Amino acid sequence: GFIDQMVDYAQRNAPIAKKPPVFRDIHIKDVTADGAPIAIRLTGVDDSPIENITFENMTIASKRGVKLSHVRNITFKNVKVTPKTGQVFELIDARDVLVDGVPANSTGQR
What we know:
Elements: H1 2-13, E1 24-43, E2 50-83, E3 89-99, E4 102-104
Parallel strand pairs: 1-2, 2-3
Antiparallel strand pairs: 3-4
């Protein structure tokens, strides 16, 4: 997806640093997508989780659903994801994930 490409570009072009990058306080709304390989993928790291992200008014048809790992405080408001295969949400070390106000549980596993 789009966010994935931004993060990949940032990681490939960033100098090697002792401190991990910080991604937080991002709000994405009014998006329609069809044919994406994965609807949304957010992958933080243990000591620098991705935090405070809001997705709102989105419709995504994709091969795979939403995959979140090492994230905190992620909110989905009026988001419809239709994957061709697998689950809509896969959560690994994901805390405070709300889907239209209902907490989602992290399995801690794949």
